Amino acid sequence: MKNFSLALFLLALAGCASIPLTSLPKLMRLDVETIHPEALELAVILPDNVGVKPETARLSIALEDDDTGETIRIRQVVDMPVRTPDRVLQRATKAGQHVHPFKLSESAAQALRTFRVDALRMKAERDDVTATFGASVGFCQLDNRTFPDALPIRVYIRTQADSAFFQLLRRQTMDTSALAETMNTSDDHLCETTASD
Description:
- The protein is α+β, with helices and mostly antiparallel strands.
- The protein has one domain.
- Helix content is 17%, strand content 39%.
- The strands form 3 sheets. Strands 1, 2, 3, 6, 7 and 10 form a 6-stranded mixed beta sheet that branches. The protein has a 5-stranded antiparallel beta sheet with strand order 8-9-4-12-13. A two-stranded antiparallel sheet has the order 5-11.
- A hairpin with a 5-residue loop joins strand 6 and strand 7 (71-77).
- It starts with a strand and ends in a 14-residue tail after the last helix.
- The model is unreliable at 1-9 and 14-26 (pLDDT under 50).
- This is Lipoprotein.
C-alpha cells in the first residue's frame, strides 16, 4: 500500500529560530499534485516599520522516500510583488500593519512544474513518501524607523487561482531583540524601497 504523508512546515526567519507551522488542518491542502505554480502566492503581514528584503521570500518543497532516504527538493524565490492584495489579506491587515504578497515569476513557476512531474513520479513508484514544505523570509528596516525587539507576524498562502488564502501561521510575536540590535546599528539593513512602492 502506498502512503503519502505531509511533514512539518517551517517558517525560517533571518536571524531567528524556525517556527513550526503544524496543527493546522488546512495545511493538508498543500499537495504537490494540486498546487498550481502560476497561481501560488505567499503573503506575510508585518508591522509598518518592517519590510521584506528583495529575493528573500522563498518556498521550498522536498519529497523523501521513507525506505531509501532518497530525496528530491526545490527551493524557489517567490519574488514577484502582487500590487493589489487579496480581499482576505486586506481584511486581515490591521492599523499599523502592512501586507507583503508575492508570487512566483514565470521561470520559477516553470521550475516548480518540472519538479511536480518528478514528485508525482516518485509518489507513483514508491511505497512511502513524505513531503516537507517550508518558507523563509528576510527582513529590512523601513525609512530608518527602529526595528522592534518583538515582531508580530502572520503568514498566508494560496495554491490555486480559484481558492482563498489560508493562514499558515497565526499571529505570533517573536523575540527579535538580538536581530534588532544589528538592524538598528547598520544602514545595510534598510529596505531598498518603502512598503507602499
